Amino acid sequence: MNGDARVYAFALLLSLASGILFGLLPARLIWQTDAARVMKGGLSTSALFRRFTLRDLLLAIQIALCTLLVTASLVAVRGMQSSLRAPIGFQPQGVMLASTDMQMAGYSDKDSLVIQKRMLDRALGTPGVNAAGIINNTPLSGSGNSSGFYREGTTEFTPAHVALGAKYYSISPGYLKAAGTRLIAGRDVTWQDNAGSPKIALVSEIFARQLFGSATAAIGRRFLRGSKDGFEIAGVVEDGKYDSLTEDLQAAVFYPLAQATDNETTLVVRSQMPDADTASAVHRVITGVDPGLPFTISSWPTALGLVLFPARVAAASLGIMGLLAAMLAITGTFGVAAYSVSKRMRELGIRVALGARRTQLMRSALGRPLVLLTSGSIVGLVLGMLTSRLLAQIVYHATSRDPLVMGGVVATMALIGLVATWIPARHALAVDPARLLRED
Predict the structure, then answer these.
(1) Residues with Cβ < 8 Å from 416, sequence gap 6 or more?
(2) What are the two backbone dihedrals, phi and then psi, of residue 407, each rounded to the nearest 5 degrees?
(3) What is the domain partition of the chain in residue ranges?
(4) How far, in whole angstroms, is CA 269 from its chain's centroid?
(5) With 0-12 CB in 10 A as exposed, 13-18 as middle and 19+ as buried, what is 275?
(6) Each residue of 328-375: pLDDT tens digit?
(7) Residue-wise pLDDT tens digits, 257-285
(8) By the 8 A CB rule, do 137 and 210 touch?
(9) Cα gap 274→299, rounded to integer Å
């Protein structure tokens, strides 16, 4: 409670200080006003320019911050759209995942493989299921293992001699089809790739290029994971992302499930049925194999929600802040424009009497607020381009150089200027010289 009281007290003091500080600024202008000069005909243009320099500066800063936030929010939204279409090495749409841990259910490594095969058989026999496979941990799930790999012929297995690092997984036959991962060269794993057969592996295209120059050149070649672990490359699959959407495409290795049994099991089922029907079918598959097996079911896009969460939070937060900043920019620009018009009504009336055109009136009455809006927008856009590098660490492919982002920012700031100056502009164009003379 004491901590809460201090927070409330600090917030109260901060509010009072803000009110007093920003209340003194207009009060200072009133104290320095020459009443005799005002009575004689009002402040001169040069005096107005000098006395409102600070106000102009604050408004320009406010507009620049508004433009920055608008730019950042559009960049985040576009980046999130790009992340949903980015090549990640698999196609999650239409896929249901069922994750379990065989060890928690009391199965040994040998028994786990038997249960996993039963799951696949029942899943593939389910009407509406197009493909099914098993992997120990799905990509972009926040789990998975990494290791250093060596070229064949390496004798010193130290970090200095590692050829490349890569993620590695255990997969069953059919996983690639179920995940929508393309096989570029070679063959898929089979159940014949078991403990009694030579050790083989599938590798990603990056892995093949870095060690052997190309995907086709890698087929049949060997690599080492340690002094006793040598593997022949049976196939090459497309590159993907395995830890985050903002990372570059990574190297990966896929071992046959029958040669690298893993208690962690994720059943991957691809179907054209609605998600609810697929989930029910997968539930029946798991419970039909072992009713006591603990498991969780979710669609693959839903499972990727944690990966997309930073991008979604960034887009939502920046969007809200951009909206609030736009409201403040409209208010500030409207205030300056309205004040400028009200203080120059006599001058505008004289200009109308002398035959000034409407464009000349608009330039004279609203020139300063529009210059502030333009200059602040340019500064804010430049700042937005500079901060896009920071956003790129959170949102995939975030860039302010996107033509749609640039066009959106320009359109938004133009709309803000139009809304803020619409009423003052109407007042300026409605000046009646005869009425002003009668009032004098």
Answers:
(1) 66, 326, 329, 330, 333, 373
(2) -65, -40
(3) 42-86+308-439, 95-303
(4) 28
(5) middle
(6) 777 777 776 676 666 666 666 666 666 666 666 666 666 767 777 788
(7) 999 877 789 999 999 999 999 999 999 99
(8) no
(9) 11
